[in-house]
Task: inverse folding
């Protein structure tokens, strides 16, 4: 569950830019789900019992794929790039983008033999 300022705008971004499908959305309370293949991501506005000062996350969401190059080709001109596609010594080919809330999404493919 990722807290966001605007659930509707976030779902629209994930659908139009990242190619996810909208799975659920509720205006009151603001909450929604997007999905693609076997991945589901939930978004909500935090409830009144939580101190909230905007989207925050001290890491990234890592999405494993069988074709990082295809994702790179699809997203490189549509999203804010954190780092371009690269092969890493730990056996992954990956890149990272920021979503419309500033959350970092990494896309990685295992390239070990």
Result:
């Amino acid at each position: 569950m990722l807290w966001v300022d605007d659930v509707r705008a976030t779902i629209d971004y994930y659908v139009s830019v990242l190619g996810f499908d909208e799975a659920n959305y509720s205006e009151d309370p603001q909450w929604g789900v997007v999905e693609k293949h076997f991945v589901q991501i939930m978004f909500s506005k935090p409830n009144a019992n939580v101190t909230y000062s905007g989207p925050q996350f001290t890491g990234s969401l890592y999405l494993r794929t069988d074709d990082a190059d295809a994702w790179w080709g699809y997203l490189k001109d549509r999203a804010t790039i954190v780092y371009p596609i690269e092969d890493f010594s730990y056996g992954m080919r990956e890149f990272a983008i920021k979503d419309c809330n500033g959350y970092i999404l990494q896309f990685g493919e295992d390239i070990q033999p």
Remarks:
- The chain has two domains: 1-47, 58-113.
- The mean pLDDT is 93.
- The helical segments are 7-16, 68-75.
- The longest strand covers residues 80-87.
